[in-house]
């Protein structure tokens, strides 16, 4: 019975490695992207204005991790450069974005109301000019600024700071999750933003396997994960394209094996974990939805399919919001891939759309 675990034994050498917010020590297969970002930032090291960049790629392709890695280096080696990572999923207005910058520079958060944007902006610019610091703002998950219609305002303010305050140097790293919907900027932003585009393609099977194998070696005790099981996890991850699925699968199948008191993960442990792990991305999107978006999503989930006209009527009854806002929210749910909304060519308000859920209705309702 030596392959059985006793109650106080574990397969996990370090379970922290399987958390989704863990910053991996070994960031593999992204050397090209890291180099391209460093190249854009380099002018800042000599006190100049960095080039802007635009990082684009599917979910779970290492965009956020790449920026965190670069910012760690800057913090260590470039005291004259101040990197600020703003999570736009949480900070989705111009005021919120600049509050994060303010907090990083000045050391405390500005009040959430009662202070004008202009005042915060002026304080930031004055600080940068006085201390001769170069500011680099990474707008992570910038998609959310599009949904709130704030993206042009945010970029414009950052890009024009040096015009109001000579000597101020600001660089932008924009990070977009590629959802297949094109993201267009205002012409006046477009003409000054001019970012270096850095693509984050999906990882190949071999790359996924390599990354997961590396993670497993550090996180599990030796012998826990054999090659056949790793191949199965790689297959599932590659099919969905998001590396988070694989990391979550490692964790859950490890826990399944422990529950059986086994010292090794089996293919069955992986299969029974997959039901939950394949939804990590769903949970991640849903945790950020705002109240009105949840109301709309619930209405979509309540019917097998609905027309956009019917949906608007129900939505309006509940929220009293106007059609344009409804339409924005519908587009957002579409572009984060929670719903399908195809045009039919019929309907009174322009073209009507048939709206359906992309996930099982119960999975969605559970998370609302
Ligand atoms: N090359 C890599 N090596 C090791 N771990 C990686 C690598 N790329 C991604 N990861 C891991 O995969 C997970 C997702 O990566 P990350 O958050 O950087 O993706 P993302 O591109 O920002 O996704 P999203 O568009 O959904 O925000 C993280 O837990 C990260 O640690
Ligand atoms: Mg990210």
Describe this entry's structure for a reader.
The structure is a single chain. The protein is globular. The two termini are 45 Å apart. It has helices spanning 31-45, 63-77, 94-106, 117-131, 143-147, 151-164, 187-193, 205-219, 227-240, 243-259, 267-277, 280-286, 291-302, 308-319, 323-335, 361-366, and strands spanning 53-57, 81-87, 134-140, 169-177, 196-200, 306-307, 339-343, 353-357. Strands 2-3-4-1-5 form a five-stranded parallel β-sheet, with helices on both faces. It has a three-stranded antiparallel β-sheet with strand order 6-8-7. It has three domains: 31-200, P-loop containing nucleotide triphosphate hydrolases (Rossmann fold); 203-283, Helicase, Ruva Protein, domain 3 (Orthogonal Bundle), CATH 1.10.8.60; 291-366, Orthogonal Bundle (Arc Repressor Mutant, subunit A). The relative contact order is 0.12. The chain has 368 residues and is of the alpha/beta class. It has 16 helices and eight strands. It binds adenosine-5'-triphosphate and magnesium ion. Residues 63-64, 140-141 line the site of magnesium ion.
